[in-house]
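TlpA disulfide reductase family protein
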Amino acid sequence: MSVSKRNNNSIFKTFRRLALGTCGRIGSTAGKYLLLLVFLMYAAIQQQSHAQVASAKAANALKPTPLAIGDKIPDELWNLPLQVVNHPQGKKTITLSEYKDKLIILDFWATYCSPCIKNFPKLHALQNEFGDKIKVLAVTQEDTDKITRFFKKGAGKEHTYVNSVINDSVLLQYFPHKSVPHIVWINSNGNVLNTTQAEDINQSNIQAILDNQKTQMIAKVDIDRDRPLFLSEHFSNDLQLKSYSIFAKGYYAGLPSGNKFKQSKDGKIYGRQMTNASMMNIYNPIIDELFHKNGEQFNSKRMIIHVKEPALLYVIEKKDGEYEKYNLYNYELIVPEEKADSLYYYMLANLTRYSDYIGSIEKHIVDCFVLVRTSTKDKLKSKGGKPKTNFTPTHAILINRPLGHMLNMVNGDTITNLPIIDETGYTNNVDMEMSGIKDLTSFKKELSRYDLDLIPAKRSLNMFVLKDK
């Protein structure tokens, strides 16, 4: 803080010299008014500086204990100075006590969180609708510079109405969470009413709270994903977890949508979890690993789906841009470290045992295209240099990369619904550039420049087959 004080003293001395010099030049009355103006400017700077210092000192003095649903907000939190931006009255710091008689909704957010930003207009509209009955207050850990840039030049320039706490380190400790948006509800009695996702902030829930009625909110209780999912906190460290599995249908608000690994000290993966994921989001990485173990590349064209309702296998988007949650799952399997090499085989077997589907990898004779060379002249061999891979829907560049990279790109594209198999036998790295790729015909034309062609054929291939039970 000494840097701040030196800066303010320097500013004051400069203003004082300017004022005194001006007084001598333009007369005592005008000079006095100018001097008064300078002192008011200095006082404002000092006030802002003292507020920031007070906020920092108050934060450092606190040793917050996390608050649970139903807990009372402690006095020290009510009176804690909080640094803010975009305050309706231009304040630089506030305290929660200013809103003590209202329903307070804390919206924890971050500039990298697109769902958080997407929620801003809805929260602003609700604030306007309910007026003085509620206070929606955004909260972020991010610093002044980053937030200033965000509201001036970033995605936030259209949302400068967002009144937000910044540089937060204390509220996060009172209301710990793993993901954003994270919403904390504090009722007018000063109790933590709930912690939820942003979608629970709506007109009906707010009105129900104000009317002391039951809401439709679902509590968001975050889970530490470094631990096995849903394992009791009373599981002793003295116990050695040898195996663990859970498969649950339904969305869990305290978990993100994604994957996480458990890795041994020597780098072996002996556990994996998929949270708030569709069945295909669970199957895909498992099958990808099993194909890889067989020296093959898995893609959507290597699947045979025989189920009555295939749409349920995937994330279902709704009209408002959100997605359905009833067909999502949480799955984790941990095996003994000495069985790490079999993890993905066990995962597939586990899903067959407990899900509504039977998944297997089987040999099938299928229609496909085979990539072949049309001459013995080598037009592919790389000249070396820094490896580069760049694919767009109509353009592809490979520099000093294996030919398989191009096949992986095409197999993940919609140029053809059939799998493409490499039968060139070419093992060197290649340099290739193809443009104007619109369909199979244009793709074949580009391949011909390198003496390559795609030939329709039937081959016996490993396929992932999924059936209803």
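thats it. The mean pLDDT is 87. The chain has four domains: 2-61, 75-210, 244-355, 365-468. bye
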